[in-house]
Amino acid sequence: MERCKCGRRAVFFRRYEGTYLCDRHFTYSIEKKVKRNIRVNRLIRSGDRIGIAVSGGKDSMSLLHIMNEILGPRRDIDFLAITIDEGIRPYREKGIRYAKEYCKKLGIEHHIYSFKDIFGKSLDEKMKEFENPESGLSCTLCGVGRRYILNKVARELGLNKLCLGHNLDDEAQAIIMNYIRGDLFRASRMGPKPVVYDKKFVGRIKPMRIIPEEEIKLYATLKGIKFQEKNCPYKSGIRLEVREFLNKLEENHPGIKFIILETFDRLLPYIRQCVKNHQEKVTYCKFCGEPSSKDVCKTCVLWRE
After folding, report:
1. In terms of CB atoms within 10 Å, which of 5, 100, 121, 300 comes out highest?
2. Mapped to the 3 state alphabet, what secondary structure does the chain carry?
3. What is the maximum alpha-carbon separation in the chain?
4. How many domains would you assign to the chain?
5. pLDDT digit string, tens, across residues 255-298
6. In this structure, is residue 18 part of a structural domain?
C-alpha cells in the first residue's frame, strides 16, 4: 500500500509530480493551487461583484465550494451563483437540483435563467428543427447561447466578473480547437486574466484552469459534494476527438497539458497584439443590442426566429 508523505494511506498518485497524496493533502493541494492562481494573477480585488457559473457538474460545484471558502469571510466582495437551464431533459434537471441544494446549504444567492425564457425555446426543441444536424451543432448552439445569457444577466445584475469552472483539460482542448479553427479572437480572450474588448462584456476569471479534470472529480468526491455525473447527451463533434488525443498524449507524457497551457500563456501577448492590429471594430447587434463584430450577432443568427 502506497503512503503519503505524512504516513497516511494515499488516495491519489500525481504522475506529473511523482507524488502520492492522502485525502487531506490532496484536497489541501487543490485549494492551495486555486488560491495561488487567484493571488498571482490578481483575479479578485476588493469591491468586486462576482457571479459564479454553476451547472451542477463536478467542476462548477467544486468551484462553488472553494470560492465560498475564499470569499465567504470577506465583506469587501459580493458574490452569487448563476445557473443556465439549456432545457436538456432529463440531464439538466439533476444538475440544477444539485446546484439549488448546495447554494441553499451554503447560503449563496442563486439565479436560474433558461433558454426557453430567453430564446423562446429549449435546446431540445431547437435541435428538433434539424433533420440531420451536422456534428457539433448542438454544442455550438448551446455554447453560444450560454455565453450570451451569462454575459447579459451578469451585466444586468451589476456584476463586474464571471467566475467559470474551466479546468486544465478544458483549457488545453480550447487552445487546440482555436488553433484548428484559426480563431485568434477567441484565443486572445483566454489566458489567466480577463480581457474585455467592450464595456458590455463582463470579464471572466477561471481559478481552476490549472487543475486537471480527474483531480477536480476526486476533490468533489472526497469533499462529499453531490454533482451531475452523467455526460451531456449532445456531447459530440471534433472536441471529443481532441479530448481523446490529449488524454493519450498525457498518458504517454505526464504533464503535457500543463506544457500546452504554459506555452500558450507565453504566446498570448503576441496573439492579443495581432488581434488588436487586425480586429474588426466591435459594434452592437441591430436586434438585441449586444456586442458583435457584425450587424447581427452570432446568437441572433442561430437563435432568433
Report:
1. 300
2. CCECCCCCECCEEECCCCEEECHHHHHHHHHHHHHHHHHHCCCCCCCCEEEEECCCEHHHHHHHHHHHHHHCCCCCCEEEEEEEECCCCCHHHHHHHHHHHHHHHHCCCEEEEEHHHHHCCCHHHHHCCCCCCCCCHHHHHHHHHHHHHHHHHHHHCCCCEEECCCCHHHHHHHHHHHHHHCCHHHHHCCCCCCCCCCCCCCEEECCCCCCCHHHHHHHHHHCCCCCECCCCCCCCCHHHHHHHHHHHHHHHCCCHHHHHHHHHHHHHHHHHHHHHHHCCCCEECCCCCCEECCCCCHHHHHHCC
3. 64
4. 1
5. 999 999 999 999 999 999 988 777 667 889 999 999 988 899 99
6. no
The cell numbers describing 289, all together, are 443590442
In this predicted model, what pLDDT tens digit does every residue of 207-239 receive, in sequence order? 999 999 999 999 999 999 999 999 888 877 788
- Between CA 175 and CA 270 the distance in angstroms is 15
What's the CATH code of the domain at 138?
Answer: 3.40.50.620
Domain range for 197 is 23-303
Q: First and final CA of the chain: distance in angstroms?
A: 61
C-alpha cell at 137: 451543432
Is residue 8 in a domain? no
Q: Is residue 285 part of a domain?
A: yes
Residues recorded for the chain? 305
Give pLDDT tens digits for 60-84: 999 999 999 999 999 999 999 999 9
Residue type, 207: P
CA 115 to chain centre: 18
| Cut 0.85: pTM above it | yes
Q: Which of 98, 247, 66, 272 is nearest to 169 (CA)?
A: 247
